[in-house]
Structures are given as structure tokens and as C-alpha cells.
Amino acid sequence: MSCIFCQIAAGEIDSDIVYQDHQVVAFRDLNPQAPVHILIIPREHISNLDQASAENADLLGHCALVAAEIARAEGLAESGYRLVTNVGPDAGQSVDHMHFHLLGGRRMQWPPG
Fold this sequence. Notes:
The protein has 113 residues and is α+β, with helices and mostly antiparallel strands. It has helices at residues 4-9, 57-73; strands at residues 17-20, 24-28, 36-42, 81-84, 100-104.
């Protein structure tokens, strides 16, 4: 298994896991871009959102609900947070495994990039 996120999901690589269930794993980013920066990944390897299909709709919804649950647990819900996924190299995707960035704990700017 060469995908680092698949290895994290399988427990083969240590990470600071904040949430996991049978569908997703969430862990703190090693290079945080905000005081709270958590990655939410599906256990199933999907390269990015563009490669997802209608069969993945429940999984994608679950990722979003998990993000909201984590945001509440991290104390971000009242002040706000950002949930983003990058698709492809021009968007900044650096790991070829779909993942969502949960960012919070500071004021976000718009436009983001």
C-alpha cells in the first residue's frame, strides 16, 4: 500500500487521530495552516472528489457530518470554521487520496487563494 493516507487509515502510520469509525479517519495535519487543522479521510481510497461517484454520496455526506461533529468538539462551531477539499495539483492537492481540511481557530480570509 503506497498511499500514505491509506496507511494512516489502516493504522500502519502513527498520527494524532481525533476521530475514527468504520468509514472515516480524522487526524491533525502535520503542517497546520490554522490553530485547528484536521484532515478527514475516507477509509476507502478515492483519489479526489472528481473521481467520486453517486455510489459515494453517503460516504461524502458522512465526511461532512463528521467534520461538523469534530468542529463542535474542538470549540469551532460558534465562531466558525472552513471545510475544503482540493482537487488536482492546480488546487494544491498533494496526496492522491480524497481528504477534507477542517480549518478553524482564526479568522479566515476570502478569497482563500
